Structures are given as C-alpha cells and as structure tokens.
Fold NAD(P)-dependent oxidoreductase.
Amino acid sequence: MNSAQHSVTVMGLGPMGRAMAAALLDRGYAVTVWNRTASRADGLVARGAALAPSPAEAVAANEVVILSLTDYAAVRAVLEPAAPALDGRALLNLTSATPEEARAGADWAAGHGAVQLTGGVNSSPTGIGQPESYTFYSGPREAFDRHRPVLEALTGRVDHQGEDPGLAALHYQIGMVMFWTSLLGYWQAVALARANGMTAADILPSVVETADSLSETFAFYAERIDAGVHLGDVDRLAMGLASADHVLRTNADAGVDTALPAAVVALFRRGVEAGRGADSCSALVELLAKPGK
Ligand SMILES: NC(=O)c1ccc[n+]([C@@H]2O[C@H](COP(=O)([O-])OP(=O)(O)OC[C@H]3O[C@@H](n4cnc5c(N)ncnc54)[C@H](OP(=O)(O)O)[C@@H]3O)[C@@H](O)[C@H]2O)c1
C-alpha cells in the first residue's frame, strides 16, 4: 500500500470521477484509477494515471480511496469483492446517497477496518479542482483533517459537518431538493416559451432575474418560518393558489405537459383546504413537514 499523502486511488470514472482524477494529476498526485468500463480511463492513463486491473488491486494501491459511483448499490458491488483489501483505508465516498445509506456504508467499511468520510459535492464536473467549488463532509474529524489536502484538491472549499457520516449526505440532499426542483421549474419555463415560439436564449434574462430574486425571498421567509410566523400581510396562500392555477392553465392552453404545474396547484390547494388560505404561502412548510395533517 502506498500511504504517501501524494498518492490516491479513484474508483468510478463517470464525468465526476474523471474530473477528480484529472484535478489530482494536475496537482502532481500519483493516481491509480479503476472503472467498470476500463476504456473510460484512457485519457487519464495517457496523462500518467495507473489503471488497476481489479477493484481489489485499486484499493490495495493506496491508503486514500476516492469513490465516485452512481449510488451506494454500485459502491457495494465494487467494494464487496475488494473487502479483504480495505483494512487501513480511508474511503472518501463522494457518491450521492441518503443519510441512512451513508451511515450503513460507513458501518460496513468500519467492519472491514476502513474509515469512511462521506462527501456531498456541490459542483458540476467543470467545478472540480476550482478554488470556489464546495463539498460537505462528515465522518471522523481526524480523517477529515488528515486528508484535507486531497479534499481541497478536489474542491477548494471543504466543510466538516460533524462526526455522523449521514450529515454530509443530509446537507447535500437538502441542496439537491432545491437543485432538481429549480431546474425542473426552469425546464418547464423553457417548454412553455418554446410552445409560444421563443427560445431558451430569449427568456434567459427574465429567468435569471427571477432566480436572483429568490435569495432575498428565502431570507425574508427564513426568519418568519423559524419564529413560527406565517402572517398573510405580504402574500396569502389563497392568492398563491390562484397564481399557481394561472400557471397551470397557461401551460395547458399551450399544450405543454402539466404534471409539474398540476403538482404545485395540488399542494397550494391542500394548504387552502387545511384552512390556511389567509396565511402566508410559507404556511405550506407546516403542511410539508407533516404531510399526514
Ligand atoms: N455529474 C454531476 O454533475 C454531479 C454533481 C454532483 C454530484 N454528483 C454525484 O457524483 C457521483 C458520480 O457522478 P457521475 O456524474 O460521474 O456519475 P455517473 O455518470 O453515474 O458515473 C459514475 C460511475 O459509476 C459507475 N457504476 C455505476 N454502476 C456501477 C456498478 N454497478 N458497478 C460498477 N460501477 C458502476 C460507472 O461505471 P461505468 O463507466 O462502467 O458505467 C461510472 O464510472 C454520483 O453519485 C452523482 O450523484 C454528480
């Protein structure tokens, strides 16, 4: 095993894993790679990475093993045959997962003598290796401190959320709630624009303005939500329902898919039917937090 701080294994060479291995090569690390589809390693091997012939040999090569796989089922599929080689390894698991999966993964690794640091990467592959990009980590603080140079080679900013290996996954998934629903909203807007003869470029200025205005909106609501205040002095849920219905009917009239706007209307309607019509739209948080009530 190579325990030098400048020698790392990367397993999983999708867009993320390839970007990570490349960033480490850029910084002079000796990098061993493994991928189920070996040909994805070609560009990295041409730059000096060593291609391990099996997961066990990839794990055996270095103390630090970065995992960038689709999900934890893939992590298990890859690591189980390599389990005897795991003793003494630090697994930097940057694979997306639920908090429970991350905790179970850390337990499984510990059972084989390895330490897992869970990571949630808040960057696209193009941000890997950049100083401003950011990753949540959780798991043993000692491992975080020990391997910080490698972590900072991947994303310039790193943050240790706590010892619980599920915490990084939790923070990451909170971000992903925002990310996927926002992107879906954007794609719906583009579909509606296209149905009306406009392009994505045509609406870019207005969608960016809407997105930019959200930061201020979040800050306004955060204070009131934490205080349990849902005053309808600025916005009322009944108004929100009427507005969401306009969105739904505009999409329907244009012949655009209505699954997303209909889901939004359904949530607003539940709020009004629960008697919160005169409260702020933020009262929906109470409904979402307790979906049975
Ligand atoms: N891409 C992004 O913008 C982004 C941003 C933030 C976080 N992430 C997270 O980072 C992780 C990696 O992202 P990615 O875009 O590189 O993912 P990806 O395109 O899904 O590729 C990940 C790797 O997983 C491997 N894999 C999948 N199932 C496998 C199995 N059963 N056995 C062995 N290998 C398996 C693939 O191998 P093959 O090459 O053989 O198919 C590939 O190397 C994911 O958890 C993702 O959610 C991605």
